[in-house]
Write a structure and sequence with these properties.
By secondary structure, this protein is mainly α. It has two domains: 31 residues; 42 residues. The protein contains two helices and two strands; from the N terminus they run αββα. The protein has a two-stranded antiparallel ribbon. A hairpin with a 4-residue loop joins β1 and β2. This is DUF2905 domain-containing protein. It comes from Mucilaginibacter robiniae. It holds the Pfam family DUF2905. Keywords: Membrane, Transmembrane, Transmembrane helix.
Length: 75
């Protein structure tokens, strides 16, 4: 393992801690995540299917924008 691997593990761990703090302190304000129009929710007698399509698309756009800004700033 190189020192770069250790740095990336620290960054990933910090992001997980940050996500945990956001959910812990702002969890009551984030109830709309996963319940957006376009999220697929099918519920029958013995069957439940849920696919947060719109939520996944928004998260994908957000992560893409963050990565593009990160790359732009690191030049």
């Amino acid at each position: 393992m190189t020192s770069d691997t250790g740095k990336w593990l620290i960054v990933i761990g910090g992001l997980i801690v940050l996500a945990g703090l956001i959910v812990y302190f702002l969890g009551d304000k984030l109830h709309w995540i996963g319940h957006l129009p376009g999220d697929i929710h099918v519920e029958k007698e013995n069957f439940r299917f849920y696919f947060p399509l719109t939520t996944l698309i928004l998260l994908n756009i957000l992560l893409f924008a963050i990565i593009r800004i990160w790359n732009w700033l690191s030049r």
